[in-house]
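Help wanted!
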Amino acid sequence: MWRDAVLVAGKDLRVEARSRVGVNQVVPFALLVLVVFAFALDSDRVTLVSVGPGLFWVTVVFSGLLAIQRSFVIEADDDARDALRLSGLDGAGIFLGKAGAIAVQLAVLEVVLAFGVVVLYNLRLHGAVMLLLTCAATTVGLAAAGTVYGIIAAGLRVRDTLLPLLVLPVLAPVLLAAARACDAALAGTPSEGWPWVRLLAVFATIYVTFGVVAFGPLLEES
Amino acid sequence: MSSTKLDDNRRTGEDRDARRMSSRATKVLGWATASTLALTAVMALVISPADVNMGDSVRLLYLHVPTAWLAMYVSFGVTTLASALYLWKRTRSRFWDLTAGASAEIGVVFLGLTLLIGSIWGRITWGVWWTWDARLTTTAVLFVLYLGYLAVRKVPASPEAQSRRAAIVAIAAFLDVPIVHLSVTWWRTLHQDASILDERRLLDPQITGAMAWTLLLGVVAFTLLYAWLLIHRFRLAWVEDRIADRQIDLAIEERRAEATTDDRSAADALGARTPSAEVAR
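Answered by r_m:
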């Protein structure tokens, strides 16, 4: 299973690295969202600092949706999905590989956006341990839930509109928890943040488990 | 000609089915629903007193609580259960898939009503249409989750793929519900605690007399309403399913008729095609 996962993740990341869609489109889009938020809200420093963590995670989720869609668009071309089905790879392995590749892309995106938030919103980072754990748990949760819904929507004519409708409500608690945990870390009150980090970890565990179990059957009929 | 005869047989068979489905039991259920609903209306609007704090706006709650109960616990509970039964190989059948879909549709409609009535009540009591309180937020997320589920059901695909996909989405949505609930409860809470389904409250109830009876009657009435709606929505879906099946059969028969008539003379072809064209209409 793990060998299959590494193979699939490697393939996805190689495709992304060569096509450069992530670097040329998704990352600029994410930065653009940060700038647009500054326009929409009053661009004074106090507001942006106080809502910074929330905006950061909203941006990650929106850009993450693009990454998830990309991950399944590359399987749609040239009937690559049929090849994947026929490859004899383990369904759980394919899930872990695809989710892993999305998680790596999200992690890169988060690093870029963190710089963006620090520079554009003048946010000061504190509580490195909690921030890192929050990012790790959220990234895994987003990637796992996104991959589950990505395969459900993949291959449908309406996938571009269906995916956000399905994923965003599911991710609502993740968004909430990640923003609260970052708030707590930045405010220097980590004791308030730990329950949120635990919730994120629980979410990630549930959806990784669900994906490992359900991905095989979903891939069969997508 | 043979195709029309076959079709007539099927049609009478289905008519008999349809008559059997609108059975005496569902008629009784319908009347029971209507009368308990009417009684609830009388109790809620006339007999029960106005609340000390809330005044007459408390009467909205006799609708609000039962619709919430119907949507969140009964409907979505049945959807989840039916989806799980569909996914389990031993009990997999179209029956469970249609039940899950019918139940979710009813649930979404009544959850929408719950939000609407709650919003009106909130405007009167809290002074705002909406507030980001835990239970409201959870309910709103739940509403959108199941809208997504219904959207998935509407996406065209082969029936089996569609059913399995919908069932998996239902289970995934259900997994999310406790997490959403927990997260927004930690976030903030303004809504009052559960009035009845709470140990402390059960032993020391805070609503009594006519109000409690009205609420209880409302819950019973809406549970009956749910059962009645579910049966009828299910029937409709079942009949739709069979019509779709029959259209496929008809199309196949027509193609076969065309294939055989190609060999015959033009006059024969005209004769064979007319009846099936009539049926299609």
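OP: Thanks! One thing I noticed: Chain B touches chain A through 27 residues (CB under 8 Å).
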